[in-house]
């Protein structure tokens, strides 16, 4: 199991108890949660972190802490959705750090790790999915920038969002190992500010 990944500016690492206040600040930020769901209390945020760490032990991957010069600014990584098959890539970055490209930078490293063969230290996955509320244009731009492609036939109503809620309609994006490698890092997509993702 890989506990750390690195990019040019970021360290993706496992969580520690010292990260809990910053994690709660992320999950209680109304700007971050506006296209995700309700803001979290400290107890709810701590329980979420506990689940993340459990998933690392269960699956061998999870949502890494995005560390910028020793500061926890959000998360990115991989998870198994509770309501469907597959492995999802997701991210969430504190609003004061939006617009600096941290979400796509971290997510690209997660994609690389996911699609790298096991014998080379990766996970050897064949496909990743990502989804978000149809109205979450910032996160959709990140998906496109890192090389995921919209699958309109896979769009769905999220089962945990009440009927009538504008966040219920979700869009599905996919990346396949072979085709993602061919298109590189999605550099053909427009360069846009990074916003909050769904996880």
CATH class descriptor: Alpha Beta
The CATH homologous superfamily corresponds to Gcn5-related N-acetyltransferase (GNAT)
Our count of domains comes out at: 1
Estimate what percentage of residues fall within beta strands.
15-25%
Structural class label: alpha+beta
What does this structure look like?
With 199 residues, the protein is an alpha+beta fold. It has a single domain (4-183), classed as Aminopeptidase, CATH 3.40.630. The protein is built from six helices and nine strands, in the order ββαααβββαβαβββα. Strands 1-2-3-4-5 form a five-stranded antiparallel sheet, sandwiched between helices. Strands 6, 7, 8 and 9 form a four-stranded antiparallel sheet that branches. Helix 1 (20-27) crosses helix 3. The model is unreliable at 185-199 (pLDDT under 50).
Please name the defining characteristics of this protein.
five-stranded antiparallel β-sheet, Aminopeptidase, 199 residues
Summarize the structure.
By secondary structure, this protein is α+β, with helices and mostly antiparallel strands. It contains 6 helices and 9 strands.
List the helices and strands and how they pair.
Elements lengths: L3 E3 L4 E3 L6 H8 L2 H4 L8 H18 L3 E6 L2 E9 L8 E6 L8 H14 L11 E7 L3 H9 L3 E2 L5 E2 L11 E8 H7 L16
Antiparallel strand pairs: 1-2, 2-3, 3-4, 4-5, 6-9, 7-9, 8-9
């Amino acid at each position: 199991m890989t506990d750390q990944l690195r990019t040019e500016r970021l360290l993706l690492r496992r969580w520690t108890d010292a990260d809990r206040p910053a994690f709660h600040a992320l999950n209680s930020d109304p700007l971050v949660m506006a296209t995700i769901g309700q803001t979290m209390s400290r107890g709810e945020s701590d329980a979420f972190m506990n689940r993340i760490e459990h998933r690392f032990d269960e699956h061998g991957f999870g949502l890494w802490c995005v560390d910028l010069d020793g500061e926890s600014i959000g998360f990115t990584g991989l998870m198994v959705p509770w309501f469907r098959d597959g492995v999802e890539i997701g991210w969430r970055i504190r609003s004061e750090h939006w617009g600096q490209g941290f979400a796509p930078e971290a997510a690209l490293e997660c994609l690389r790790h996911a699609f790298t063969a096991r014998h080379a230290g990766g996970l050897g996955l064949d496909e990743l999915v990502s989804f978000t509320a149809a109205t979450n244009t910032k996160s959709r731009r990140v998906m496109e920038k890192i090389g995921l492609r919209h699958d309109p036939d896979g769009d769905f109503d999220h089962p945990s969002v009440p009927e009538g809620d504008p966040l219920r309609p979700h869009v599905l994006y996919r990346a396949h190992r072979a085709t993602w490698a061919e298109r590189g890092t999605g550099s053909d997509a427009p360069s846009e500010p990074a916003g909050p993702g769904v996880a």
